[in-house]
Each structure stands twice: as C-alpha cells, then as structure tokens.
Amino acid sequence: MGKKIALNVFYNLGLIVSIFGAVWAFNNTKYLVIVLFVATAAFFLYLKLQLIKEMRNALKKKQKDLG
C-alpha cells in the first residue's frame, strides 16, 4: 500500500511539473517543448488513472473478503 501511495505522489509531481513546463514553454514560444510536456502530462495522467482503478478494485476485493 505504501508503494502505491509513493507512486501516486510521484505521478502528481510529474503532472505538476509537466503543467508548469508547458506554461513556461508557451510563454517562451517553444512549441516543440509544449508538445513534449503535454505528452508527458498525458502519460502521467494515464498511469495515475490506472493506479486509481487498480486501487479501487483491490479495496472492493478486500471489502468483499471481509464482509
């Protein structure tokens, strides 16, 4: 469980850095860098959603086993 929380924190930091990077690149008219940051943000968002789905299923299974 602790590993999954650490992964979630890492994914959140990745999303935040990607968003700030995209804003910086937009302000400096570096359009190729914007594409890179948007792609990494999408990747971190995908991984985060997969982790949430996995945790939700694990919690449902745990509740089913207990109840």
Any overview of this molecule?
The chain is elongated. The chain has 2 helices and no strands. With 67 residues, it is mainly alpha-helical. The model has no long low-confidence stretch (mean pLDDT 95).
Sum up the structure in keywords.
transmembrane; mainly alpha; elongated; DUF6358; 2 helices; membrane; 67 residues
The string of secondary-structure elements, in order, is: HH
Largest sheet, strands/sense/barrel: none
- Tell me the count of domains: 1
Query: In percent, how much strand structure appears in the residues?
Result: under 5%
Class by helix and strand content? mainly alpha
Please give the radius of gyration in angstroms. 16 Å
Estimate percent helicity: over 70%
Shape: elongated
Specify the number of helices. Answer: 2
What distance separates the N and C termini? 20 Å
Give the low-confidence spans.
Answer: none
DSSP strand tally: 0
Overall mean pLDDT stands at 95
Q: What's this entry about, in short?
A:
The chain has one domain (2-66).
